[in-house]
Task: structure prediction
Amino acid sequence: MSTKVTIHRLCTGVPGLDAILGGGLPEFSFNLITGPPGSGKTTLAHQIMFALATREKPALFFTVLGEPPLKMLRYQQQFSFFDFDKLNESIRFVNLSDDVTTGNLNNVLARITQEVEAFSPALVFVDSFRSIIQEAALQTEGTSSLQLFIQQLGMQLSGWQTTSFLIGEFLSESGSHPILTVADGLLSLEQSVERNSMVRKMQLMKMRGQAILPGMHTFRISGDGIEIFPAARVRGDTGEEPLTIGPLRSKKRLTMGVARLDEMLGGGLPAGYSLLVAGPSGSGKTILATAFLAEGVRQGEPGVIVAFEQTPSQSWVRTLDDMIRAGQIGLINSRSPDLSIDEIVQHLTDLIQQMKATRVVIDSLSGFELAVAPTFREDFRESLFRMFAVLSGLGVTVLMTSELEDRYIDLRFSPYGAAFLTDAIIVQRYIEVESSLQRVMAVVKVRASSHNTEIRRYEITDDGIVIGDPVSDFEGILGGQPTRTKGYRMVKRGTS
Amino acid sequence: MTLAHRAGSAHDATAAAEATISTWRQMAGLCTPVIGARGVDVIFRRSMYLTGKTFPWLASGEEQGGSAALLASLKVSLTGRDADDAAAAGYTLLATFLELLATLIGESLTERLVSPVWAPSEQETVS
Result:
């Protein structure tokens, strides 16, 4: 047992990358970072380098023709991770362009060998490798010598006990490049532009000996460098310690903060449930959500709201603003055009953990869909499903609102098919009664719980939602054109 | 170490020229591995051009030929002047090179790069 080799995993210093790698970067691995120009390859490499390089474990960064080193240094030092104190002693840059232009791969290998032996680095980066390949292809016939070169380099770099990275655009032309079979790890970056959004994605296509997180992971480049948002997944399935915030589907029920609504839900909303509030514009969904959060604050249960809709300054909105300012409610209010659901989930998870929140409001799913970049809209439903799984794993109770089209020929709860994903549904409608609009709501579903099925009138006042009596004097309400119930008085007497 | 130190007590143009060129060689030697021979060459030619505005007798940086030819013509220009002129032009040339490099990669990085050869100016006045 103990004679097995232990692979040390290095923390890359790139937020989210270690999670994708399945716990960190294997020491002495030979990795490729590929992607088209501008996809963030050099930035990723530098960020890893500055995080890992120390005086004892220095890094050597070879620059080849691709990006002029002057420009690279000029732009890379803008990032906060670019630590001048590490230069020279922990990090050294070496330019290989003069050796590469000769086209003799043996010279290049000899030069790399010489530098590596002189500096004995723990980390080696070669950026960009494509230049070497192109120059070599111009000078030599066939790929056999190139393949040999790559294999030799790979072998040597591992033999020198270095963790190494080759950076380049390998995949654009042919998928079966010899280099791909030699590498231990393969990290592919890409950027996609749709309409006026640009989304960066990263995929770990290979990492020997690691349980990696498959799929495309979105990332963002800011002044602090790269931040990756691993595709949302259910916590606890990767061996990580499960999060124990909030009662995980306990018998507890949460009060909604609207009189008589708890009674309609059969005694409040079960903790850990997700509730969809669907209704037409102006039906009071946001007010209901605010009441839910305010009630949480009263009960000492912090909340988080993900707001995608501009709200006018009205009394209940001021309540929400006050709670946010007082730090009782966390706010996520993102309006960038290239948002991914995973990014929101990451921020939401962080905020929930930070605030120890048990109540979460997403207002609204309609705004959410508009806010995510067009590339993600196709997978919106699937991503929502994963988001619910993550939130459910966190044990929080979620209330989300959804715009419901005013249709009087069929009954719909949500255009996304989000209804089946949620545990409870409240639907709100307008009805026409005696030439005026009235609002009604009903609890359509509370999973594994009995609940009131009455349709009730309600009003929106300055104090919030006031729920009235069941509408038993009309029928055909959901069709929008109710008619007075025949023999209403008799029926009422009979049922009561 | 400063140019004056390198030139020593022998106050003549040849010593100033040799000090300039040997300092330049060391600076280039430190910069080339990082920014490449081409990067060094481009900035050096630009420095020659800029210094030539103050010292019109200096060989122009736009001159054709390799860097060896450029250095040779620089040496000829410097030795052809009196000691003070040669030292001033040599100093200006090297300072201009560092200034240009600093505008591209920042002062902090430039200082780190050439510190073994070129002490920061405040130390120079002290020594």
The CA atoms of residues 201 and 218 of chain A lie 4 Å apart.
